[in-house]
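I have been asked to look over a protein record a colleague put together. Alongside the sequence sits a line of tokens, each denoting a local backbone shape. Please read both lines and tell me whether the tokens look consistent with the sequence. I do not need a full report, just your reasoning and any doubts. I have pasted the whole thing underneath without changing anything.
>
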Amino acid sequence: MSSDKIKDVKAAGEEAVETARDEIDAVKAHLERLITKHVVPALTNAGGKAGNLTEEAVANVRELANHARNDISKQTRAQSPWVSIAISGVVGFILGRMSR
């Protein structure tokens, strides 16, 4: 190959590199604009919604725990006198047998 053809090929290669760099920079700038305008607000909105849902879930769990505690409390209060009488009777019987 002659030196002119080599220079032409080299110049074409450098021009292709510059064109590719310019296109990459343009795509990069476009991508940054898209992320700034669309992705960041969407993620912020999703984060806010997730926070609200978390607060609602915590409130629901607390409410369920309070209901369960109240139900158990009612059940134990209803059974408590009879259970304590039965336990006292059994303990008294055992102590009475042991004291003989």
User: Anything to note?
Assistant: Helices lie at 3-99.
